[in-house]
């Protein structure tokens, strides 16, 4: 039996205040105030076994950051690359390959754990260096939506309905008003994904972060029946790729975005060329939460695989849902490229292949569906959502563009 968990905006948080030791006072002290809601958690998950299981799947995605802010493109073409900005996707992929030897089964968007006739599906993430833009723009009300989105969008790719979310907020000195704005965004994200904000932790760590800055991370857990898991095993050549539009850059690629901004000579307060919003507003647009839309489409049948387009763009994320021996052809011009991506590419003189491997380019989620289902999905939205036929599955490996 699957227990239904309704959205809950009541916050139950664990607050930790850690005082760093000083030379004049060598004994450190730590206070921890933990509060959890008095809901029937034991009843909700009474069947959960914590015993080791050989039947599990672990998700692993690498997000690499670097403080290195110097240098031009290593390719010598003068254009900027993600690697120049300090993020090496190839190194991340190599680490995943090595970890897979130690923990077989990783590589999906969410980790699966058996629970009776269902799987618990879990995902964890942060929002990366988009936080830097939040600090610079003063826009803190929506960064929590990004945080929730990065995890729930991952676990819904398995067909799982999110159950609950927990967050971690860390800062050097707690600014209660600012933290309230951030947590309000997390609450909004949970409401959008129809899941409960179950708890979290607020850590105050003096001298660890720059004044006025903070860090965020979180994780979500969902559930799906074993016979309803979307795992890509039935994908065949000829299946259709349907793309769901993004709101913008979402929460990946900001190390490169920040490099482009520095080279452009513009500020976050300047207008996005040709548009009626500022660069800061365009770049801080919150990540779309696709949970309700994707679950609705899945419920109508014909969906064989779902890919969340995050770090690695189309090039690295779409093949993650394919059986061996299959690849994809993406139709150039089959969806609307958002103005913010056009500006990024032009201002940074970024090559097309680099753009497609770094950013979502206006498509935040890709569904792999049968031809029959594609017609229903593309025509059956009744104006409730936009969807584009962006490509097809082919024999071979990798992603090509035509």
Give an overview in words:
By secondary structure, this protein is of the alpha+beta class. The radius of gyration is 21 Å and the shape is globular. It has helices at residues 41-44, 89-102, 130-137, 143-155, 176-192, 254-264, 279-283, 291-299, 313-317, 339-348, 352-358, 371-379, and strands at 14-18, 30-34, 111-115, 118-126, 161-171, 196-204, 214-225, 240-245, 303-308, 326-330, 363-369, 388-395, 399-401. The chain has twelve helices and 13 strands. Helices cover 28% and strands 23% of the residues. Strands 2-1-6-5-7-4-3 form a seven-stranded mixed β-sheet. A six-stranded mixed β-sheet has the order 9-11-8-12-10-13.
Largest sheet: 7 strands, mixed
Low-confidence stretches: 1-76
Number of helices: 12
Q: Major sheet: order of its strands?
A: 2-1-6-5-7-4-3
Counting helices, strands and paired strands, the structural category is alpha+beta
* Estimated helix fraction: 25-40%
Task: Report the order of strands and helices.
Answer: EEHHEEHHEHEEEHHHEHEHHEHEE
Evaluate the radius of gyration: 21 Å
End-to-end span in angstroms?
Answer: 46 Å
Strand content: 15-25%
Quaternary form: single chain
Mean pLDDT comes to 82
Which geometry do the CA atoms define? Answer: globular
Instruction: Let me know the number of strands.
Output: 13
């Amino acid at each position: 039996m699957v227990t239904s968990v309704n959205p809950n905006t009541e916050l139950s948080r664990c607050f930790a205040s850690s005082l760093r030791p000083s030379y004049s006072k060598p004994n450190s002290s730590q206070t921890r105030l933990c509060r959890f809601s008095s809901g029937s958690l034991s009843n909700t998950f009474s069947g959960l076994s914590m015993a080791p299981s050989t039947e599990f799947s672990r998700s692993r995605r690498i997000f690499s950051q670097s403080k290195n802010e110097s240098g031009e493109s290593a390719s010598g073409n003068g254009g900027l690359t993600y690697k120049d900005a300090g993020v090496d996707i190839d190194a991340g992929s190599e680490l995943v390959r090595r970890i897979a030897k130690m923990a077989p089964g990783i590589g999906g968007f969410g980790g699966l754990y058996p629970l009776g006739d269902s799987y618990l599906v879990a995902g964890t993430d942060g929002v990366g260096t988009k936080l830097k833009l939040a600090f610079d723009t003063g826009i803190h009300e929506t960064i929590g939506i990004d945080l929730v989105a990065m995890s729930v969008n991952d676990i819904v790719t398995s067909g799982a309905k999110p159950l609950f979310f927990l967050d971690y907020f860390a800062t050097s000195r707690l600014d209660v008003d600012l933290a309230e704005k951030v947590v309000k965004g997390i609450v909004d994200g949970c409401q959008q994904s129809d899941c409960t904000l179950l708890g979290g932790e607020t850590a105050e760590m003096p001298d660890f972060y720059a004044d006025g800055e903070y860090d965020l991370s979180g994780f979500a857990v969902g559930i799906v029946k074993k016979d309803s898991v979307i795992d890509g095993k039935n994908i065949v050549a000829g299946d259709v790729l349907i793309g769901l539009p993004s709101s913008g850059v979402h929460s990946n690629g900001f190390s490169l975005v920040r490099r482009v901004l520095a080279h452009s000579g513009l500020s976050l307060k300047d207008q996005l060329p040709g548009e009626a919003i500022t660069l800061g507003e365009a770049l801080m647009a919150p990540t779309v939460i696709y949970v309700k839309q994707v679950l609705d489409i899945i419920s109508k049948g014909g969906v064989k695989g779902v890919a969340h387009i995050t770090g690695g763009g189309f090039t690295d994320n779409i093949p993650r849902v394919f059986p061996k021996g299959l690849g994809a052809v993406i139709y150039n011009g089959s969806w609307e490229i958002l103005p913010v991506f056009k500006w990024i590419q032009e201002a940074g003189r970024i090559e097309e292949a680099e753009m497609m491997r770094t950013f979502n380019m206006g498509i935040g989620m890709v569904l792999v569906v049968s031809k029959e289902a594609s017609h229903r999905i593309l025509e059956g939205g009744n104006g409730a959502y936009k969807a584009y036929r962006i490509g097809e599955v082919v024999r071979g490996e990798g992603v090509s563009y035509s």
